[in-house]
Design brief:
CATH architecture of the largest domain: 3-Layer(aba) Sandwich
Number of domains: 2
Distance between the termini: 85 Å
Number of strands: 11
Order of helices and strands: HEHEHEHEHEHEHEHEHEHEHEH
Helix content: 40-55%
CATH class of the largest domain: Alpha Beta
Shape: elongated
Largest sheet: 6 strands, mixed
Strand content: 15-25%
CATH superfamily of the largest domain: Response regulator
Structural class: alpha/beta
Length: about 325
């Protein structure tokens, strides 16, 4: 065998081996790219947030589109995301659940498409959508925690048919939905009496004023108005004045609201999962527009209803399954 052929034979073998390794590596890389990595940032280590996360995962893992991996982040955002990159699990999406998680994400340094969930629409519009973090168009979206104004008016109109005057306190975060409230007021024939609250203002005075001229009070999510320090006093004042108080959470019903219109963490988790699924199904590279909750429930406080029965006409058909 000529010397040149002796050299060529091992060279051909080496080339074949290299081709095999490259092909194998390509298949492994392609398989890894088919994995979708989702970083989930929870505001608190509590049952409601766990319920949200579990339903989010359940919704996405039920699909056969692609393999989805979830990575819960509860410490430094930048360090945690860097660790995921190093481990080969670079996040394709981030889901931030709650206001505290949202604040942490906004201070992080990344450009990963992010869905903000379990936050009021006013919080997203005022603090998130125009933030430096969301400067890349369509890289941020949300599934709101609060209900659309028109839905609230529709349920109040049906549940409290005799309520002609509805008192509402708007704070610094919620004042931007004033026009939505006025449009719903006109559509459903319910006169609204609006009070504007400033930070640290005595809200009991405002509630007293509204109670004299309103048939019911509607709470709009705004941390400067309704928080741990103020909620109890506002509820006691409305109860003292025999005014139905309509709220937006399970905890408000337990504390003394006549009824609440709200979406559960599981319902929000499922909708967040569907939003992500829509992107994966249609291979979209931008997030859809923010969404109000699709599913919701109406929960009543039976004891409060009994105490108000002689003063109000309550239509319990609003408690039918939504």
């Amino acid at each position: 065998m000529p010397v040149l052929d002796k050299i060529r034979s091992p060279f051909r073998l080496l080339c074949l081996l290299l081709c095999f390794v490259i092909t194998l590596t390509s298949h492994v890389y392609a398989r890894e790219k088919n994995n979708i990595n989702i970083a989930v940032v929870l505001s608190k280590d509590t049952p409601p947030y766990h319920a949200f996360s579990e339903q989010l995962q359940k919704t996405l893992t039920a699909t056969q589109i692609q393999k989805v991996k979830f990575h819960t982040i509860d410490s430094d955002i930048n360090d945690s995301i860097s660790t995921l990159y190093v481990s080969g699990n670079a996040p394709d999406f981030i889901v931030a659940a709650g206001a505290h998680a949202s604040k942490k994400i906004l201070t992080s340094d990344n450009s990963i498409p992010t869905i903000f969930s379990l936050i009021p629409s006013s919080y997203y519009k005022n603090r998130i959508q125009n933030s430096p973090y969301c400067k890349r168009k369509k890289y941020c979206s949300a599934v709101y925690l609060d209900q659309p104004v028109e839905r609230q008016f529709s349920i109040i109109k049906k549940g409290l048919p005799d309520a002609k005057h509805l008192g509402i306190i708007l704070g610094p975060s919620s004042k931007n939905i004033k026009n939505e409230i006025l449009r719903a007021s006109k559509k459903y024939g319910i006169n609204v009496i609006l009070e504007s609250a400033k930070t640290d203002e005595n809200l009991i005075v405002l509630v007293d004023h509204l109670a004299r001229s309103s048939d019911a009070l509607l709470a709009i999510p705004d941390h400067d108005v309704y928080n741990r320090k103020t909620a109890k006093g506002i509820l006691l004042n409305s109860y003292k004045n025999h005014i139905p108080f309509v709220a937006y959470s399970h905890s408000f019903v337990r504390a003394g609201a006549l009824f609440s219109i709200y979406s559960t963490p599981e319902q929000i988790g499922e909708q967040t999962g569907r939003m992500l699924m829509e992107m994966l199904t249609h291979s979209k590279n931008t997030l859809p527009e923010p969404e109000f909750p699709d599913a919701y429930k109406v929960e009543i406080n039976p004891a409060v209803l009994r105490s108000l029965r002689s003063r109000i006409h309550f239509n319990d058909s609003i408690l039918d399954k939504q």
